[in-house]
Protein backbone atom coordinates (compact mmCIF):
# COMPACT_ATOMS: atom_id res chain seq x y z
CA UNK A 1 0.00 0.00 0.00
CA UNK A 2 1.38 3.44 -0.95
CA UNK A 3 0.43 4.79 2.49
CA UNK A 4 3.26 2.85 4.11
CA UNK A 5 5.76 4.45 1.75
CA UNK A 6 4.46 7.91 2.59
CA UNK A 7 3.90 7.41 6.32
CA UNK A 8 7.28 5.83 7.07
CA UNK A 9 9.22 7.93 4.56
CA UNK A 10 12.02 9.57 6.58
CA UNK A 11 10.47 8.40 9.87
CA UNK A 12 13.81 8.81 11.66
CA UNK A 13 13.74 12.50 10.69
CA UNK A 14 10.40 13.26 12.38
CA UNK A 15 12.07 15.54 14.95
CA UNK A 16 14.96 16.59 12.72
CA UNK A 17 15.58 20.35 12.72
CA UNK A 18 16.32 20.50 9.00
CA UNK A 19 14.92 23.10 6.59
CA UNK A 20 11.63 21.22 6.19
CA UNK A 21 11.27 20.63 9.92
CA UNK A 22 11.87 24.30 10.70
CA UNK A 23 9.42 25.37 8.00
CA UNK A 24 6.72 23.05 9.35
CA UNK A 25 7.24 24.08 12.97
CA UNK A 26 7.42 27.76 12.01
CA UNK A 27 3.89 27.48 10.62
CA UNK A 28 2.42 24.76 12.85
CA UNK A 29 3.31 26.02 16.33
CA UNK A 30 2.01 29.61 16.01
CA UNK A 31 -0.95 28.32 13.99
CA UNK A 32 -1.91 25.80 16.66
CA UNK A 33 -1.52 28.36 19.44
CA UNK A 34 -3.73 30.82 17.55
CA UNK A 35 -6.39 28.15 17.10
CA UNK A 36 -6.17 27.21 20.77
CA UNK A 37 -6.65 30.80 21.91
CA UNK A 38 -10.32 31.16 20.93
CA UNK A 39 -11.53 27.83 22.39
CA UNK A 40 -9.58 28.64 25.54
CA UNK A 41 -11.38 31.98 25.70
CA UNK A 42 -14.65 30.06 25.30
CA UNK A 43 -13.55 27.77 28.12
CA UNK A 44 -13.00 30.87 30.27
CA UNK A 45 -16.51 32.00 29.33
CA UNK A 46 -17.77 28.55 30.29
CA UNK A 47 -15.92 28.67 33.61
CA UNK A 48 -17.33 32.11 34.50
CA UNK A 49 -20.87 31.17 33.42
CA UNK A 50 -20.56 27.89 35.34
CA UNK A 51 -20.38 29.97 38.52
CA UNK A 52 -23.87 31.30 37.78
CA UNK A 53 -25.48 27.86 37.57
CA UNK A 54 -25.87 24.63 35.58
CA UNK A 55 -28.92 25.93 33.67
CA UNK A 56 -26.99 28.95 32.37
CA UNK A 57 -23.94 26.92 31.37
CA UNK A 58 -26.18 24.44 29.53
CA UNK A 59 -28.03 27.29 27.78
CA UNK A 60 -24.86 29.06 26.71
CA UNK A 61 -23.42 25.71 25.67
CA UNK A 62 -26.20 25.23 23.14
CA UNK A 63 -25.80 28.81 21.86
CA UNK A 64 -22.05 28.38 21.45
CA UNK A 65 -22.58 25.16 19.52
CA UNK A 66 -25.10 26.89 17.23
CA UNK A 67 -22.92 29.96 16.63
CA UNK A 68 -19.75 27.96 16.08
CA UNK A 69 -21.40 25.51 13.71
CA UNK A 70 -23.10 28.21 11.64
CA UNK A 71 -19.82 30.12 11.51
CA UNK A 72 -17.99 26.96 10.52
CA UNK A 73 -20.44 26.33 7.70
CA UNK A 74 -20.01 29.89 6.45
CA UNK A 75 -16.26 30.30 6.75
CA UNK A 76 -14.56 26.90 6.71
CA UNK A 77 -14.80 26.45 2.91
CA UNK A 78 -13.58 30.01 2.43
CA UNK A 79 -10.59 29.66 4.76
CA UNK A 80 -9.56 26.29 3.33
CA UNK A 81 -9.57 27.35 -0.32
CA UNK A 82 -8.02 30.72 0.58
CA UNK A 83 -5.01 29.06 2.21
CA UNK A 84 -4.37 26.82 -0.79
CA UNK A 85 -5.00 29.47 -3.45
CA UNK A 86 -2.93 32.16 -1.72
CA UNK A 87 -0.06 29.69 -1.23
CA UNK A 88 -0.20 28.71 -4.91
CA UNK A 89 -0.40 32.31 -6.19
CA UNK A 90 2.32 33.47 -3.80
CA UNK A 91 4.64 30.64 -4.94
CA UNK A 92 4.12 31.25 -8.66
CA UNK A 93 4.28 35.05 -8.35
CA UNK A 94 7.46 34.83 -6.25
CA UNK A 95 9.09 32.63 -8.88
CA UNK A 96 7.94 35.00 -11.62
CA UNK A 97 9.25 38.05 -9.76
CA UNK A 98 12.62 36.36 -9.22
CA UNK A 99 12.85 35.63 -12.95
CA UNK A 100 11.92 39.21 -13.81
CA UNK A 101 14.42 40.66 -11.37
CA UNK A 102 17.11 38.25 -12.58
CA UNK A 103 16.46 39.23 -16.19
CA UNK A 104 16.40 42.91 -15.29
CA UNK A 105 19.70 42.57 -13.43
CA UNK A 106 21.35 40.79 -16.35
CA UNK A 107 20.14 43.51 -18.70
CA UNK A 108 21.46 46.24 -16.43
CA UNK A 109 24.81 44.48 -15.98
CA UNK A 110 25.13 44.14 -19.76
CA UNK A 111 24.47 47.83 -20.21
CA UNK A 112 27.02 48.63 -17.53
CA UNK A 113 29.69 46.56 -19.27
CA UNK A 114 29.12 48.51 -22.48
CA UNK A 115 29.32 51.79 -20.66
CA UNK A 116 32.52 50.73 -18.90
CA UNK A 117 34.06 49.69 -22.21
CA UNK A 118 33.18 52.90 -24.04
CA UNK A 119 33.20 55.42 -21.25
CA UNK A 120 35.20 54.50 -18.14
CA UNK A 121 34.49 57.78 -16.42
CA UNK A 122 30.73 57.11 -16.36
CA UNK A 123 31.09 53.75 -14.54
CA UNK A 124 30.26 55.21 -11.16
CA UNK A 125 27.10 56.94 -12.31
CA UNK A 126 26.00 53.82 -14.22
CA UNK A 127 26.46 51.70 -11.10
CA UNK A 128 24.43 54.19 -9.10
CA UNK A 129 21.69 54.04 -11.73
CA UNK A 130 21.72 50.24 -11.57
CA UNK A 131 21.35 50.24 -7.79
CA UNK A 132 18.51 52.73 -8.02
CA UNK A 133 16.72 50.55 -10.57
CA UNK A 134 17.12 47.50 -8.32
CA UNK A 135 15.78 49.45 -5.37
CA UNK A 136 12.76 50.52 -7.39
CA UNK A 137 12.13 46.90 -8.39
CA UNK A 138 12.27 45.77 -4.75
CA UNK A 139 9.93 48.57 -3.68
CA UNK A 140 7.52 47.71 -6.46
CA UNK A 141 7.27 44.11 -5.29
CA UNK A 142 7.15 44.92 -1.58
CA UNK A 143 3.33 44.81 -1.52
CA UNK A 144 2.26 41.60 -3.18
CA UNK A 145 -0.48 41.39 -5.79
CA UNK A 146 -2.51 38.29 -4.93
CA UNK A 147 -6.08 38.36 -6.31
CA UNK A 148 -7.23 35.60 -3.94
CA UNK A 149 -6.68 37.93 -0.97
CA UNK A 150 -9.22 40.49 -2.19
CA UNK A 151 -11.65 37.70 -3.06
CA UNK A 152 -11.40 36.19 0.42
CA UNK A 153 -12.05 39.53 2.13
CA UNK A 154 -15.03 40.29 -0.10
CA UNK A 155 -16.66 36.92 0.47
CA UNK A 156 -15.83 36.97 4.20
CA UNK A 157 -17.54 40.32 4.73
CA UNK A 158 -20.67 39.31 2.81
CA UNK A 159 -20.95 35.97 4.61
CA UNK A 160 -20.54 37.67 8.00
CA UNK A 161 -23.47 40.01 7.37
CA UNK A 162 -25.63 37.13 6.13
CA UNK A 163 -24.83 35.11 9.27
CA UNK A 164 -25.78 37.99 11.56
CA UNK A 165 -29.13 38.48 9.83
CA UNK A 166 -29.83 34.74 9.91
CA UNK A 167 -29.06 34.22 13.60
CA UNK A 168 -30.81 37.37 14.83
CA UNK A 169 -34.00 36.61 12.91
CA UNK A 170 -34.06 32.83 13.45
CA UNK A 171 -32.50 32.45 16.91
CA UNK A 172 -35.63 31.16 18.66
CA UNK A 173 -36.62 28.47 16.11
CA UNK A 174 -33.00 27.32 15.88
CA UNK A 175 -32.79 26.91 19.66
CA UNK A 176 -36.14 25.14 19.66
CA UNK A 177 -34.77 22.70 17.08
CA UNK A 178 -31.76 22.16 19.34
CA UNK A 179 -34.07 21.01 22.12
CA UNK A 180 -34.04 24.22 24.20
CA UNK A 181 -37.59 24.58 25.53
CA UNK A 182 -39.08 27.43 27.57
CA UNK A 183 -40.10 25.14 30.43
CA UNK A 184 -36.47 24.10 31.06
CA UNK A 185 -35.37 27.63 32.00
CA UNK A 186 -32.68 27.51 29.30
CA UNK A 187 -34.46 29.49 26.57
CA UNK A 188 -34.00 33.08 27.81
CA UNK A 189 -30.26 32.91 28.60
CA UNK A 190 -29.61 30.92 25.42
CA UNK A 191 -31.54 33.46 23.33
CA UNK A 192 -29.79 36.45 24.90
CA UNK A 193 -26.34 34.99 24.37
CA UNK A 194 -26.94 33.84 20.78
CA UNK A 195 -28.46 37.12 19.54
CA UNK A 196 -25.72 39.28 21.06
CA UNK A 197 -22.93 36.94 19.98
CA UNK A 198 -24.24 36.97 16.39
CA UNK A 199 -23.55 40.72 16.15
CA UNK A 200 -19.86 39.84 16.04
CA UNK A 201 -20.23 37.47 13.07
CA UNK A 202 -18.87 39.95 10.44
CA UNK A 203 -15.72 40.46 12.50
CA UNK A 204 -15.33 36.72 13.11
CA UNK A 205 -15.64 35.78 9.43
CA UNK A 206 -13.35 38.57 8.25
CA UNK A 207 -10.77 37.59 10.87
CA UNK A 208 -10.88 33.93 9.86
CA UNK A 209 -10.66 34.82 6.16
CA UNK A 210 -7.57 36.92 6.88
CA UNK A 211 -6.09 34.09 8.93
CA UNK A 212 -6.47 31.89 5.84
CA UNK A 213 -4.57 34.50 3.86
CA UNK A 214 -1.73 34.66 6.38
CA UNK A 215 -1.51 30.85 6.47
CA UNK A 216 -1.19 30.82 2.69
CA UNK A 217 1.65 33.31 3.06
CA UNK A 218 3.16 30.92 5.65
CA UNK A 219 2.82 33.55 8.36
CA UNK A 220 0.92 32.22 11.37
CA UNK A 221 2.61 34.50 13.89
CA UNK A 222 0.55 37.57 12.99
CA UNK A 223 -2.81 35.81 13.56
CA UNK A 224 -1.42 34.43 16.83
CA UNK A 225 -0.49 37.86 18.19
CA UNK A 226 -3.82 39.37 17.11
CA UNK A 227 -5.85 36.50 18.55
CA UNK A 228 -4.02 36.51 21.88
CA UNK A 229 -4.48 40.28 22.21
CA UNK A 230 -8.20 40.02 21.44
CA UNK A 231 -8.80 37.06 23.73
CA UNK A 232 -6.93 38.81 26.55
CA UNK A 233 -9.42 41.66 26.22
CA UNK A 234 -12.25 39.12 26.30
CA UNK A 235 -10.95 37.52 29.50
CA UNK A 236 -10.57 40.93 31.19
CA UNK A 237 -14.02 42.12 30.13
CA UNK A 238 -15.85 38.89 31.05
CA UNK A 239 -15.99 39.37 34.85
CA UNK A 240 -16.54 43.11 34.46
CA UNK A 241 -19.62 42.78 32.26
CA UNK A 242 -20.93 39.62 33.95
CA UNK A 243 -20.48 40.41 37.65
CA UNK A 244 -19.60 44.10 38.08
CA UNK A 245 -22.28 45.36 35.67
CA UNK A 246 -24.41 42.28 36.47
CA UNK A 247 -25.24 41.52 32.83
CA UNK A 248 -24.84 37.77 33.36
CA UNK A 249 -24.65 35.68 30.18
CA UNK A 250 -25.32 38.80 28.08
CA UNK A 251 -22.13 40.32 29.47
CA UNK A 252 -20.12 37.30 28.34
CA UNK A 253 -21.49 37.69 24.81
CA UNK A 254 -20.76 41.44 24.67
CA UNK A 255 -17.18 40.90 25.86
CA UNK A 256 -16.65 38.28 23.16
CA UNK A 257 -18.02 40.53 20.40
CA UNK A 258 -15.77 43.45 21.39
CA UNK A 259 -12.71 41.19 21.32
CA UNK A 260 -13.56 39.87 17.83
CA UNK A 261 -13.76 43.34 16.28
CA UNK A 262 -10.43 44.19 17.90
CA UNK A 263 -8.82 41.10 16.33
CA UNK A 264 -10.24 41.94 12.88
CA UNK A 265 -8.87 45.50 13.07
CA UNK A 266 -5.35 44.29 13.93
CA UNK A 267 -5.26 41.73 11.12
CA UNK A 268 -6.58 44.17 8.52
CA UNK A 269 -4.01 46.84 9.41
CA UNK A 270 -1.21 44.29 9.20
CA UNK A 271 -2.40 42.71 5.96
CA UNK A 272 -2.62 45.99 4.05
CA UNK A 273 1.11 46.50 4.64
CA UNK A 274 1.94 43.24 2.84
CA UNK A 275 -0.68 42.84 0.12
CA UNK A 276 -2.64 45.14 -2.18
CA UNK A 277 -6.18 44.69 -0.89
CA UNK A 278 -8.04 46.47 -3.69
CA UNK A 279 -7.70 44.95 -7.17
CA UNK A 280 -7.63 47.27 -10.22
CA UNK A 281 -10.74 45.50 -11.53
CA UNK A 282 -13.25 43.01 -10.16
CA UNK A 283 -12.65 40.90 -13.27
CA UNK A 284 -9.23 40.01 -11.86
CA UNK A 285 -10.79 38.29 -8.83
CA UNK A 286 -10.99 34.47 -9.04
CA UNK A 287 -14.52 34.45 -7.62
CA UNK A 288 -15.61 31.58 -9.88
CA UNK A 289 -12.76 29.37 -8.68
CA UNK A 290 -13.57 30.19 -5.07
CA UNK A 291 -17.26 29.40 -5.51
CA UNK A 292 -16.63 26.14 -7.36
CA UNK A 293 -14.23 24.66 -4.81
CA UNK A 294 -15.90 26.39 -1.88
CA UNK A 295 -19.27 24.85 -2.74
CA UNK A 296 -17.72 21.38 -2.56
CA UNK A 297 -16.22 22.12 0.84
CA UNK A 298 -19.52 23.66 1.91
CA UNK A 299 -21.19 20.30 1.35
CA UNK A 300 -18.39 18.70 3.38
CA UNK A 301 -18.66 21.07 6.31
CA UNK A 302 -22.46 20.80 6.39
CA UNK A 303 -22.07 17.04 6.64
CA UNK A 304 -19.54 17.37 9.47
CA UNK A 305 -21.64 20.02 11.22
CA UNK A 306 -24.71 17.80 11.13
CA UNK A 307 -22.85 15.16 13.11
CA UNK A 308 -21.65 17.51 15.88
CA UNK A 309 -24.87 19.54 16.02
CA UNK A 310 -27.03 16.42 16.14
CA UNK A 311 -24.89 15.10 19.00
CA UNK A 312 -25.39 18.35 20.94
CA UNK A 313 -29.12 18.26 20.22
CA UNK A 314 -29.40 14.68 21.50
CA UNK A 315 -27.48 15.67 24.65
CA UNK A 316 -29.79 18.66 25.23
CA UNK A 317 -32.79 16.35 25.03
CA UNK A 318 -31.33 14.30 27.89
CA UNK A 319 -31.49 17.31 30.24
CA UNK A 320 -29.49 20.33 31.40
CA UNK A 321 -27.06 18.22 33.47
CA UNK A 322 -26.11 15.98 30.55
CA UNK A 323 -25.90 18.96 28.19
CA UNK A 324 -23.63 20.86 30.57
CA UNK A 325 -21.28 17.86 30.82
CA UNK A 326 -21.39 17.35 27.05
CA UNK A 327 -20.57 21.02 26.40
CA UNK A 328 -17.56 20.98 28.72
CA UNK A 329 -16.22 17.72 27.24
CA UNK A 330 -16.88 18.88 23.67
CA UNK A 331 -15.00 22.14 24.23
CA UNK A 332 -12.01 20.24 25.64
CA UNK A 333 -12.23 17.59 22.89
CA UNK A 334 -12.20 20.20 20.14
CA UNK A 335 -9.69 22.54 21.79
CA UNK A 336 -7.10 19.80 22.27
CA UNK A 337 -7.66 18.40 18.79
CA UNK A 338 -7.07 21.84 17.29
CA UNK A 339 -3.38 21.46 18.08
CA UNK A 340 -3.24 19.00 15.19
CA UNK A 341 -4.76 21.65 12.93
CA UNK A 342 -1.50 23.57 13.26
CA UNK A 343 0.25 20.67 11.52
CA UNK A 344 -2.59 20.53 9.00
CA UNK A 345 -2.09 24.22 8.13
CA UNK A 346 1.64 23.72 7.72
CA UNK A 347 1.11 20.70 5.51
CA UNK A 348 -1.52 22.48 3.42
CA UNK A 349 0.53 25.64 2.79
CA UNK A 350 3.80 23.84 2.02
CA UNK A 351 2.18 21.14 -0.13
CA UNK A 352 0.15 23.73 -2.08
CA UNK A 353 3.36 25.65 -2.83
CA UNK A 354 5.13 22.41 -3.79
CA UNK A 355 2.34 21.37 -6.18
CA UNK A 356 2.35 24.86 -7.73
CA UNK A 357 6.08 24.42 -8.42
CA UNK A 358 5.54 20.74 -9.44
CA UNK A 359 7.93 19.69 -6.67
CA UNK A 360 6.46 16.25 -5.91
CA UNK A 361 9.41 15.18 -3.77
CA UNK A 362 8.80 18.02 -1.32
CA UNK A 363 5.05 17.33 -1.34
CA UNK A 364 5.68 13.69 -0.37
CA UNK A 365 8.29 14.59 2.26
CA UNK A 366 5.97 17.19 3.80
CA UNK A 367 3.00 14.81 3.91
CA UNK A 368 5.15 12.17 5.61
CA UNK A 369 6.53 14.55 8.21
CA UNK A 370 3.22 16.12 9.26
CA UNK A 371 1.47 12.73 9.49
CA UNK A 372 4.22 11.33 11.71
CA UNK A 373 4.14 14.40 13.95
CA UNK A 374 0.34 14.25 14.04
CA UNK A 375 0.33 10.69 15.35
CA UNK A 376 2.89 11.51 18.04
CA UNK A 377 0.94 14.61 19.06
CA UNK A 378 -2.30 12.62 19.31
CA UNK A 379 -0.73 10.03 21.59
CA UNK A 380 0.65 12.73 23.89
CA UNK A 381 -2.69 14.55 24.02
CA UNK A 382 -4.53 11.34 24.84
CA UNK A 383 -2.19 10.65 27.75
CA UNK A 384 -2.43 14.22 29.04
CA UNK A 385 -6.23 14.37 28.91
CA UNK A 386 -6.69 10.90 30.35
CA UNK A 387 -4.74 11.91 33.44
CA UNK A 388 -5.58 15.61 33.72
CA UNK A 389 -9.34 15.63 33.21
CA UNK A 390 -10.07 13.71 36.41
CA UNK A 391 -8.82 16.60 38.52
CA UNK A 392 -9.16 19.48 36.06
CA UNK A 393 -12.90 19.08 35.46
CA UNK A 394 -13.68 20.85 38.77
CA UNK A 395 -12.38 24.06 37.21
CA UNK A 396 -15.57 24.20 35.14
CA UNK A 397 -18.26 23.12 37.59
CA UNK A 398 -18.88 21.90 41.14
CA UNK A 399 -22.18 20.24 40.27
CA UNK A 400 -21.86 16.54 41.15
CA UNK A 401 -24.26 15.42 38.44
CA UNK A 402 -22.30 17.24 35.75
CA UNK A 403 -19.00 15.92 37.11
CA UNK A 404 -20.30 12.34 37.03
CA UNK A 405 -21.13 12.60 33.33
CA UNK A 406 -17.77 14.24 32.59
CA UNK A 407 -16.00 11.26 34.18
CA UNK A 408 -18.04 8.93 31.96
CA UNK A 409 -16.88 10.79 28.82
CA UNK A 410 -13.17 11.03 29.74
CA UNK A 411 -12.12 7.69 28.14
CA UNK A 412 -13.68 8.71 24.82
CA UNK A 413 -12.20 12.22 24.90
CA UNK A 414 -8.72 10.84 25.64
CA UNK A 415 -8.58 7.68 23.51
CA UNK A 416 -9.79 9.38 20.32
CA UNK A 417 -7.02 12.00 20.33
CA UNK A 418 -4.60 10.05 18.05
CA UNK A 419 -7.46 9.35 15.64
CA UNK A 420 -8.58 12.99 15.67
CA UNK A 421 -5.04 14.24 15.10
CA UNK A 422 -4.50 12.02 12.06
CA UNK A 423 -7.94 12.91 10.64
CA UNK A 424 -7.21 16.64 10.81
CA UNK A 425 -3.71 16.30 9.37
CA UNK A 426 -5.01 14.17 6.49
CA UNK A 427 -7.48 16.98 5.76
CA UNK A 428 -4.66 19.52 5.50
CA UNK A 429 -2.58 17.24 3.29
CA UNK A 430 -5.45 16.68 0.85
CA UNK A 431 -6.42 20.37 0.84
CA UNK A 432 -2.83 21.24 0.00
CA UNK A 433 -3.18 19.05 -3.09
CA UNK A 434 -6.45 20.94 -3.90
CA UNK A 435 -8.28 17.61 -3.70
CA UNK A 436 -11.47 19.35 -2.58
CA UNK A 437 -13.91 17.15 -4.51
CA UNK A 438 -12.76 13.94 -2.83
CA UNK A 439 -12.72 15.67 0.57
CA UNK A 440 -16.38 16.61 0.08
CA UNK A 441 -17.76 13.34 -1.30
CA UNK A 442 -15.93 11.13 1.19
CA UNK A 443 -17.12 13.04 4.26
CA UNK A 444 -20.71 13.10 3.04
CA UNK A 445 -20.64 9.29 3.02
CA UNK A 446 -19.00 9.27 6.45
CA UNK A 447 -21.68 11.62 7.82
CA UNK A 448 -24.55 9.49 6.51
CA UNK A 449 -23.21 6.45 8.37
CA UNK A 450 -22.33 8.45 11.50
CA UNK A 451 -25.72 10.16 11.80
CA UNK A 452 -27.40 6.76 11.86
CA UNK A 453 -25.07 5.68 14.68
CA UNK A 454 -25.65 8.91 16.66
CA UNK A 455 -29.44 8.60 16.57
CA UNK A 456 -29.41 4.88 17.34
CA UNK A 457 -26.87 4.91 20.15
CA UNK A 458 -28.23 8.10 21.76
CA UNK A 459 -31.69 6.56 21.97
CA UNK A 460 -30.49 3.22 23.33
CA UNK A 461 -27.45 4.20 25.44
CA UNK A 462 -28.03 7.86 26.27
CA UNK A 463 -25.04 10.04 27.12
CA UNK A 464 -22.41 7.33 26.68
CA UNK A 465 -23.99 6.33 23.37
CA UNK A 466 -23.44 9.84 21.99
CA UNK A 467 -19.71 9.61 22.71
CA UNK A 468 -19.44 6.12 21.21
CA UNK A 469 -21.08 7.47 18.04
CA UNK A 470 -18.73 10.48 17.90
CA UNK A 471 -15.77 8.12 18.22
CA UNK A 472 -17.08 6.06 15.29
CA UNK A 473 -17.47 9.28 13.28
CA UNK A 474 -13.84 10.31 13.81
CA UNK A 475 -12.55 6.81 12.96
CA UNK A 476 -14.43 6.85 9.65
CA UNK A 477 -13.23 10.39 8.93
CA UNK A 478 -9.61 9.41 9.50
CA UNK A 479 -9.97 6.35 7.26
CA UNK A 480 -11.42 8.51 4.45
CA UNK A 481 -8.33 10.74 4.50
CA UNK A 482 -6.01 7.75 4.67
CA UNK A 483 -7.64 5.99 1.69
CA UNK A 484 -6.81 8.71 -0.86
CA UNK A 485 -3.07 8.71 -0.25
CA UNK A 486 -2.94 5.00 0.53
CA UNK A 487 -4.31 4.12 -2.91
CA UNK A 488 -2.26 6.82 -4.72
CA UNK A 489 -5.29 8.27 -6.50
CA UNK A 490 -6.12 11.76 -7.74
CA UNK A 491 -3.31 14.30 -7.24
CA UNK A 492 -1.32 11.63 -5.38
CA UNK A 493 -1.04 9.36 -8.44
CA UNK A 494 2.63 10.34 -8.75
CA UNK A 495 3.32 8.12 -5.70
CA UNK A 496 2.95 5.05 -7.94
CA UNK A 497 6.21 5.91 -9.67
Automatic annotation (TrEMBL):
The keyword Membrane applies. Residues 124-136 have a biased composition (Low complexity). Residues 93-111 have a biased composition (Basic and acidic residues). One of its GO terms (molecular function) is xenobiotic transmembrane transporter activity. Pfam families: MatE. Residues 92-111, 120-142 are annotated as: Disordered. The chain crosses the membrane at residues 152-175, 195-217, 224-247, 253-273, 294-312, 332-355, 367-386, 406-426, 438-458, 464-486. It is a multi-pass membrane protein. InterPro entries: DinF-like, MATE_fam. GO terms for cellular component: membrane. CDD domains: MATE_DinF_like (cd13136). Its main location: membrane. The keyword Transmembrane helix applies. Keywords: Membrane, Transmembrane, Transmembrane helix. It is found in: Membrane. Coiled coil: none annotated. Belongs to the multi antimicrobial extrusion (MATE) (TC 2.A.66.1) family. This is Protein DETOXIFICATION. It comes from Triticum aestivum.
Amino acid sequence: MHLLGVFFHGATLAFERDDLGREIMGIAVPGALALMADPLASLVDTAFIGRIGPVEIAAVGVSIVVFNQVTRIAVFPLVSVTTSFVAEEDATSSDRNKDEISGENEHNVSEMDELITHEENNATSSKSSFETDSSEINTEHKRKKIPSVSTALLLGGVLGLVETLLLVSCAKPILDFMGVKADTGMLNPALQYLVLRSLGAPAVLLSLAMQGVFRGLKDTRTPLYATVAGDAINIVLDPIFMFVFQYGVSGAAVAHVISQYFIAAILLCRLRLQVELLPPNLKHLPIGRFLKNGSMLLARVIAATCCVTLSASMAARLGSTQMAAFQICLQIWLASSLLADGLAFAGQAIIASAFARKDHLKAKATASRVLQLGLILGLLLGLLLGVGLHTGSRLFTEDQGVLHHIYVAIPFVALTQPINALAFVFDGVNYGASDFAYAAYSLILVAIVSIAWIVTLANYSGFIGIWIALSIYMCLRMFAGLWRIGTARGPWAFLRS
